[in-house]
Amino acid sequence: MPGKRRAAVGRRRFIRLAGGTVAGGAVVGGGAFTAMATGVFDDPVTDPYARMPRSLALSLPGGPGADPGVPLPPLPDPLNEGTASIPDTPPRIPYSENMPNSRAGVDVPTTLPFEFKTSGFKIVSDLPESLRPWRNRPTSWANVTPPVTDKYHLNAQGVYMYYKPVGTSTKPGPVGYDHPVGQIQFGLGCISSYRTEKDATKKALFLKRAKDQANRLITKRVVTRGAWYFPYPWDYTHTEHGGVSYKAPWYSGMSQGEAISLFAQLAGLDGITEQERTLYTNAANGAFASLLRGDNGYPWVVNKDKAGYLWIQEYPFKSPGTGDYTYNGMVFAMFGLWDYYLLTGNELAAKLYDGACTTMTRYFSLLRNPRWFSFYCQTHRIPATTYHHHHITLWTQLHWHTNSPVFANQLDALIDDFPSPVLPAGAKIAIGSGTHTLYTIDAAADGSYYHDKKTGKGQDKILSSKKVNFARATQAPVNQRRRIKGAGIWYRISEGAYKGMWIGEAWPNVFLRGEYVVTTYRIPRTLTVAANAAVTAYKFGADGVTGTTMPLGSGSEQSFTFDRRAVVNGRAMCRISAGAMAGHWVPANQVITDGRV
User: Fold this and answer.
1) What is the four-CA torsion angle of 168, 173, 176, 180, rounded to 10 degrees?
2) What secondary structure letter does DSSP report for 471?
3) Is 336 strand, coil or helix?
4) Helices and strands (H and E) in the chain: how many
5) Whole-angstrom Cα distance, residue 268 to residue 96?
């Protein structure tokens, strides 16, 4: 009896709030949207709007609180997945230790390392500045001089170095070591900031930092096989991936490709001298040459797989043609080909880029992990909880850089599999009247997914549940919308009596009010409604004003252009962009996009 009385009090408290302003009130949460069709309601009804006023289901909220878009994940760092060790005896690395003669050019190979499959992907060279590689990752002014307490900070020459902690201490050690990818990405971030900075003093320092990184890479280059390589001077072992275990020096296709971007972008700036332009163009040529050297010699970072597809290996293995076949590392390297083509117009760069795009589209089905985190690499096929949103942002850029609907469709799938869980302040869900099941799950404190391999905790295990009845529809504040392992999309309640609990998404009875997880396409895409399909188009009203619906059923197939895809009131939808139906939304799972189901 005491438990029943407490539940009744909770219900009465919620119902009182339901009639007024709900933000911050006591609200419902939890909802394991299990495989059961009745995972949300115990007493389903025929009329889809029986439990939800049309004024909520067919309108979008007004005012602030727009979707922030997919948050940009931190740049990948190999030391986050593995362990670096410093050899007792420093390895003998044949560094050049000098700047090349600016009057002498660097020869660029004129043939491909081998033939590989292509599909005709083209580099779009007239992109708006903001959509070009690395523009989305500026170095902030606060980070232009990292504090010496960080394991990554600048040496006396302004070079971004790795200072390995000594023993069990977390304090950076006294000796700095080169970290090619870290130096390159820091330099590229400084270039991005240089492009937009208005203050002359800050602008000058951003440019200096970028040049310092580039100059360090140039002096620490290894010239072999007619190409420039940028070695890692420390041993490295990946924590989970067998085969990724290196003795210094070792080389990565990711750093080779990113180095091309750094040199090519510097060479294209208007704030450098002609001598510097020649230097960085030569450096870009030298780095590009490494992608024209196959796995028939050492070092190598490029190979062709048994099916004839080109790979740029972030982690090449010891045996020719073997590697981790890492997806994100290859795409980051592809940005170097994009930048190099814009700088030089080199047709071999365009051919390599076409081949790399062909590889990514061909093996997308192996990258994708339906309804969960995508896989990190082809060799180990481990779901990448920290890399899935990298794949989303990278596929967004591949779509921009090629104007290809193939990448747009693949991007849609990645977003649907595990959309960004981040919601802006003020996000609310609408909850229909009736009985709902609320759940507590074993998630991290912020509501995110986690798995403690030592204890077995996490993995979204259900810890408890309760049923709550609501006499009428209401709204509730939420701070997460994410896929729950083995279930559907759920919302995490952020305030009130049921704070921290979850409820399953089920339009039109439980849904996030508004437009979220927005993707806007550079080129019009096509959606097709099959003949005799019962598809309804929606034109949503403004805050509380009921919108309109339009049946699209027809005896023949109908096609429309669309320019936007988003989760609108809890459903993935496409916005028609032209014709009499412009501005209407249609459910994405009821149409075919660009000829693909």
Assistant:
1) 30
2) S
3) helix
4) 11, 24
5) 25
Q: Are 512 and 449 in contact (CB under 8 A)?
A: no
3-state secondary structure 43-100: CCCCCCCCCCCHHHHCECCCCCCCCCCCCCCCCCCHHHCEEEECCCCCCCCCCCCCCC
What is the C-alpha separation between 33 and 1, in angstroms, rounded?
Answer: 28
Q: Tell me how crowded residue 592 is: count the other CB atoms within 10 A of its CB.
A: 15
Bridge-based pairing of strands 592-593 and 515-529 is antiparallel
Reduce the DSSP state of residue 314 to 3 states and report it: coil
508-537 pLDDT, tens per residue? Answer: 999 999 999 999 998 999 999 999 999 999
pLDDT tens per residue, range 379-395: 999 998 989 999 999 99
- With 70 as the cut, is the pLDDT of residue 18 above it? no
What interhelical angle do 180-196 and 253-267 show, nearest 10?
Answer: 30
Specify the pairing of strand 235-238 against strand 227-229: unpaired
- Is 526 within 8 Å of 428 (Cβ atoms)? no
Q: Output the CA–CA distances (angstroms, integers) from residue 474 to 431, 481, 496, in the order listed.
A: 5, 18, 14
- Paired tokens of 540: 């949503």
Q: How far apart are CA 170 and CA 119, in angstroms?
A: 49
Tell me how far apart the alpha carbons of residues 371 and 487 are, in angstroms, rounded to a whole number: 9
Identity of residue 416 = D
Under a CB-based contact definition with an 8 Å cutoff, are residues 283 and 230 in contact? no
What is the residue whose two structure tokens read 């890692």?
A: 232
Q: What angle do CA 336, 341, 342 make, to 5 degrees?
A: 100
Contact 524/561 with Cβ under 8 angstroms? yes
pTM value? 0.91
CA distance 358 to 337: 14
Segment 160-182 mean pLDDT = 92
Residue with tokens 């977003």: 415
Chain centroid offset of residue 83 CA: 24
Task: Evaluate the CA torsion angle 462, 463, 468, 472 in order and state its sign.
Answer: negative
Q: 126-153 pLDDT, tens per residue?
A: 999 999 999 999 999 999 999 999 999 9
pLDDT band for position 47 (cuts 50, 70, 90): confident
Residue the block writes with tokens 């360090």: 216
By the 8 A CB rule, do 165 and 84 touch?
A: no
**CA dist 425 → 306, 341, 370, 516, 549 (Å):** 50, 42, 29, 13, 30
Mean pLDDT, the chain, whole residue set: 90
Cα–Cα dist 310/337, whole Å: 13
Cα–Cα distances in angstroms (integers) from residue 261 to residues 223, 284, 506, in the given order: 19, 8, 45
Percent of the chain whose predicted confidence (pLDDT) is above 90 = 81
Cβ 10 vs Cβ 497: under 8 Å? yes
Q: How far is CA 266 from CA 187, 207, 215, 260, 276, in A?
A: 9, 9, 11, 10, 9
State which amino acid sits at residue 548: T
Beta carbons within 8 Å of 305's beta carbon, 6+ residues apart: 311, 321, 325
Strands (DSSP E) contained in 194-332 are 222-224, 227-229, 235-238, 245-246, 302-304, 310-312
Please give the pLDDT value at position 168.
Answer: 81
